[in-house]
Amino acid sequence: MKYLEISLPSPADNLACDEALLESAEAGLGGEVLRFWSSPSLFVAVGYANHVAVEANVSACEKDQIGIFRRCTGGGTVLQGPGCLNYSLILAITDSGPLQTITGTNRFILERQKAALDPLLSHPVEIQGHTDLAIQNLKFSGNAQRRRRRFCLFHGSLLLNFDLALIEKYLPMPSKQPGYRDDRSHGDFLVNLNLAPKVVQESLRAVWQAAEPLSADDIPMASVDKLVTTKYSTREWNYKL
Fold first, then answer.
1. In whole angstroms, what is the distance from residue 144 CA to residue 105 CA?
2. How would you class 31 by CB atoms within 10 Å of its CB: exposed for 0-12, middle for 13-18, buried for 19 or more?
3. 218 CB-contact burial (10 Å; exposed 0-12 / middle 13-18 / buried 19+)
4. What digits encode the pLDDT tens for the residues 55-98?
5. Max Cα–Cα distance, the chain, nearest Å
6. Which of 91, 106, 157, 241 has the smallest count of CB within 10 Å of its CB?
7. 8 A C-beta contact, residue 212 and residue 2
8. Contact criterion met (CB below 8 Å) for 167 and 79
């Protein structure tokens, strides 16, 4: 597996890059990749099936110029920005491998993430809900996937040193909650790991055996640009109009 550390200029670029890497692999032009990226500015990322008006405080976002962008994957709505590390996995789906089903994919990948993070923390990582990672019943990572025939995209965010108070401002309580949340507010439900990004990246790279960097020539930037123009920068896509 190759690794890629690249944070593109905008949330639209970064979300498009994940989809472009998936489509490139599906077309036989790329392979398995572990990518890391972060955003210097705040933005809201809604899941593919989310209703923006329900899952985001649109008036507060628009007032403060916080962009709202839709992912190509499922899952819930999150606020991202400084102190939040994103990872993206492009993985091959094989006939005899663990990624044949959605549930199997979730379990396989989250177990590996747990194995990477456990040694860095003073409390064991818990796999909660469908795709959450938590410590002491407090969530620090949400994850989602998109599947094609030969490859899948599995990505997630890790709260490292994020301003959690901002989440209350821009996100209402989610319309769907995992049982372990127990109606807790964002402030009572979420936690930062207080780890340096590089430490987390190195541990994840080791678990996924991602030793070789992806060359700049192998990044499908033409596809990224096309997806930004036709999809991720459009209000029709982001707000599902």
1. 10
2. middle
3. middle
4. 999 999 999 999 999 999 999 999 999 999 999 999 999 998 99
5. 50
6. 241
7. yes
8. yes
Stated as kind and residue range, the H or E segment containing 109 is helix 102-117
- Cα–Cα distances (Å) from 231 to 20, 71, 140, in that order, read 12, 10, 29
What backbone torsions phi and psi does residue 176 show, to the nearest 5 degrees? Answer: -120, 135
Which H or E run contains 105?
A: helix 102-117
DSSP secondary structure letters along 151-189: EEEEEEEEESS--THHHHHH----SS--GGGTT--HHHH
Which tokens go with 184? 């807790």
The torsion angles phi and psi of 11, rounded to 5 degrees, stand at -55, -40
Homologous superfamily, domain 2-238: Bira Bifunctional Protein; Domain 2 (3.30.930.10)
Query: What tokens does 106 get?
Result: 């979730």
In 3-state terms the chain splits into helix, strand, coil percentages (rounded to 5) of 35, 25, 40
Within 10 angstroms of residue 116's Cβ, the number of other Cβ atoms is 20
CB 47 within 8 A of CB 75: yes
